[in-house]
Amino acid sequence: MSKNIETHLQENRVFKPAKExxxxxxxxxxxQYEELYEESIKKPRTFWAREAKxxxxxxKWTSVLDWKPPYAKWFVGGKLNVTESCLDRHLxxxxxxxxxxxxxxxxxxIRTLTFRQLHREVxxxxxxxxxxxxxxxxxxxxxxxxxxxAAIAMLxxxxxxxxxxxxxxxxxxxxxxxxxxxxxxxxxxxxxGGYRRGKIVxxxxxxxxxxxxxxxxxxxxxxxxxxxxDVAMKRGRDKFWxxxxxxxxxxxxxxxxxSEHPLFILYTSGSTGKPKGILHTSGGYLxxxxxxxxxIFDMRDEDVYWCTAxxxxxxxxxxxxxxxxxxxVTQVMYEGAPNHPDFGRFWEMVERHxxxxxxxxxxxxxxxxxxxxxxxxxxxxxxxxxxxxxGEPINPEAWMWYHLKIGGGRCPIVDTWWQTxxxxxxxxxxxxxxxxxxxTATRPFFGVDAAILDEEGNECGxxxxxxLVIRKPWPSMTRxxxxxxxxxxxxxxxxxxxxxxAGDGAxxxxxxxxxxxxxxxxxxxxxxxRLGTAEVESALVEHQTxxxxxxxxxxxxxxxxxxxxxxxxxxxxxxxxxxNQELRNHVAQIIGAxxxxxxxxxxxxxxxxxxxxxxxRLLKELVTKGEVSGNVTTLEDLGVIxxxxxxxxxxxxx
Length: 654
Known about the structure:
Blueprint: H1 3-9, H2 19-24, H3 30-42, H4 44-52, E1 63-68, E2 71-76, E3 79-80, H5 82-86, E4 99-104, E5 110-114, H6 115-131, E6 139-143, H7 148-160, E7 163-166, H8 173-183, E8 187-191, E9 194-196, E10 199-201, H9 203-213, E11 220-224, E12 238-240, H10 241-247, E13 257-258, E14 262-268, E15 276-281, H11 283-296, E16 304-307, H12 314-327, E17 330-334, H13 345-353, E18 357-360, H14 362-371, H15 374-377, E19 386-389, H16 396-406, E20 413-415, E21 450-453, E22 466-470, E23 480-481, H17 485-493, E24 500-508, E25 514-519, E26 523-526, E27 529-532, H18 533-542, E28 546-556, E29 560-569, H19 577-590, E30 599-602, H20 616-625, H21 639-653
Helix pairs in contact: 3-4, 6-7, 8-9, 11-12, 14-16
């Protein structure tokens, strides 16, 4: 039994839902959950057809599911426009003049958009896209700060059937160019800049640099003026958002698209250097976003909901743009950092906007703990009724702090496990029904047939670690990797015939709860975001001084995992502190600041087998334990390990 599992098994604190919460919740008991869950697994077509009726369809489907592993089609023959479920249908109800988005900029500005106003802006920008020649299935790359216009751009693409591909505003020009190259975008939407920790992030400059490297043809760049800074504008290509909107009609009649019409491509790191373009389609994805919001966040009309993610990640797609709007709730959107001007910012905003549902990452929670209890204690958090965590497993003590200091001991916590590829939450407590334990995501959501298997494909017993798999299709599952079906099959469907492999290790406790214990492949979870070690290694080797590089993760008290790099320099190049810093900055420039290594260790050689394969397993042991305990009989040169041990020990003592 691994030490990780052993630690989790010592966790015996249980928190049952409060009776008052359960009384009002959509799912109010484990009996109700188990009955619905059984139906969703044994009669998925019946279950999902009933749920799907709550969305706005133009034409009903002829069959709920067509499944030919690994390819699924949901609501075959059905037609809809995703934005009608998110916007249009609310205009005929009391929600029309209700706040859809309450936005707060990092400098302090506040804007509110009602559902009617948001609908009008989306219609107008849909016309902007049409006026600029965008057609259904054209790709549009979005590189924006966290402003309402980012969501407006996404929804406008969906409204006209274009495929949006959002790139996180912290990624570099090279990362933008790679994604442009892969998806073949014809139009880019960006801003002059955005605010982060009191500074302006120059987004348009990064887009210009990326377009200089991109060999394809971007016909138009639309620039939203957020900061008012002067930016270079290329005649004939670059246009200001404000000017384009002024020329566009404010009404737009949406067309209906097939349920399987592609909605967006979102890139995620893998165990090879090239990011994967995860493709999601319309009907099934929207249903996953809608139903998980409805049941897991127990969303209701009077809620003020706040997900602190960025729209550049899948959490922002599903739990800022599509899910909450389809449920018609008011949500808070924030542009900046959680610690600007200090670590009281989030709690000040919860108090100011009377937030009732709060969804954030364990990374942020650990940073809040370190900053001190006095920050939340200065604010009235009594409006909160439900808390959530996302991005990585939460350690039990962080869970307890969140429960007591933020939730006042009264708010259920939904600890959610899911991925870019799954589209929506897969394993989570239901707040009115599930007894929670700190550190476990508890039970699968409806329709999710999750299991833990050993290498031979046998189901693991209680407390036995193995690979987390999903045995049946679910509506919001990714349909493929954009332009690479072979990679799609190999990455997710090759470990066990017909089963989706998540890439995470897990075990089930004696009460049936799922405990996620981390990645099994060469993918790090840094601040809740996936980062392929191969990507960082490729960036390092691109530097003129580097001959070879290997990257591994090490536990980090705030970020979850830190990035540790081992580098062999080219002949004649001497290691020094300046080069160390230069290489760290080089990685940040190639990929983005999130990938900047926490440490770089220079070594005359890396530990390799006699056949020349780098033994990253030994590097992982060195950075976590300071020594190697595993089998080293295949190692070519034992002296390499001794040198690295010495280097790590010296770094620790400095």
